Each structure stands twice: as structure tokens, then as C-alpha cells.
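Sample intake sheet
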Amino acid sequence: MNDTVVIVTGAEPLDRRSVHLLPANAIVIAADGGLDHALAAGLTPAGLIGDLDSISPDGLAWATEHATIQRHPEGKDQTDTELAIAFANSMTPERLVLLAGGGDRLDHTIAALGALGAPELTSIPLIECWWGDQHVRVLHGPGRATLHARVDSTLSILALHGPCSGVAMSGTRWELEQFDLAPAVGRGMSNVVETSPVSVRVSLGVLTVFFEPDADHPLDDPDEETTP
């Protein structure tokens, strides 16, 4: 079992803080042009996946010599990021991290975050994303997370993948208990962290949490993720 698998994607350079927080033994998989950003950030991808229409010639030459390449036709039904996430899931990781510098088209960004809600990922204990300098956690219900968030920072929850029911949250200014959250509505936006860690739970659905990690606890522990 691989503890952490990192998928590098996106059109912009990676945020240095997010790269610094990655476990040293993480396995890195690049989605197409994400390989160029991974190399620029000092990461060493073990694999390259996609139709390879956005990777640089130098990046492709590096991957040909140093990584396993899984090339797909341009007319495929899945995005490069979806293909890379599916491959990562086959490695049964304890933690899956989607890493992107941002700067993508809005539809690309939504599709990438949407891919983290795929039903096939339910068995992964901890799913997270760094999109630029924004930190995201994705909870598949029934699931619970203990988030070491910075006190007085903003925390938002969204049901990006369909309705969520049985949503509960404590440690924030406005707490929730057995709340039903409709898709893409603002009811869970712009909450404030009052005490850390924050406890978040969802009974049914896929809940996406945006928050700023506490500097003293930059990474949450998969062992703390339990079902309600």
C-alpha cells in the first residue's frame, strides 16, 4: 500500500508551500503538462498520464527516460486529470493529493475538483487538493474529518457533487448539526474557525471543504478519518 499519491495538474506553476508540505516518500504522477510544473518545483514524477498535448518537448524527453508513460488518444472520454486519479486509486493510497498551480479555464478547474468526488474514490481515507494556495478536503459520506485549521481563518463547505445530508460541523462560529446542503449553494460559505481542530461530518453525499491549515499542523492524519 502506498501512503500518499500526488497528482500534478494545472496550467500554472505550483505553490511552493503546498510542495513543501508533501511527504518525502509520496509517489508523484503527472497529468500531461503537469509534469513540467512538477519538475520546475523539484518533484520527480514516477509516471506521466494523458494525451500529451500540453507537455513541453523537454518534459516529454525527460519522462521518456525517467518515468512510466501511459499515453491516451486525444479523443478520449476522460480528462487527463481523471485518468491520473483513476490510476492513483488503483494503487490503494491512504492519501490522495491533487496538486495544481491554478490558472486553468474555469471548466477545467470545476472538472478537476469534480473528479475527486468519483464514487470509486470512496475507499481512500484522505482526499485533498491544493489549488494554487487554496487548500481543499473532499469527504465521501458517510465520513468524518478532523481539520487542523488556523483559528480566525475562513472555512467554507460546498456540495459540489450533488446534495449532501447529515452535515455537521463544530469548532466554527456557525455550527451545523444534521444539516442538508443543496448543490452549489452558499449556505456553508465564509464560516470562521473559532477553535481548532474543526470537526466536519457528512452522512450522505460528497462534501468539499475549503480551509487554511494551521501552521503547526499542516497535514491531517488519515488515522483520524473515521465513519460516523
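Comment: The mean pLDDT is 92. The helical segments are 16-20, 34-40, 57-66, 80-89, 106-115.
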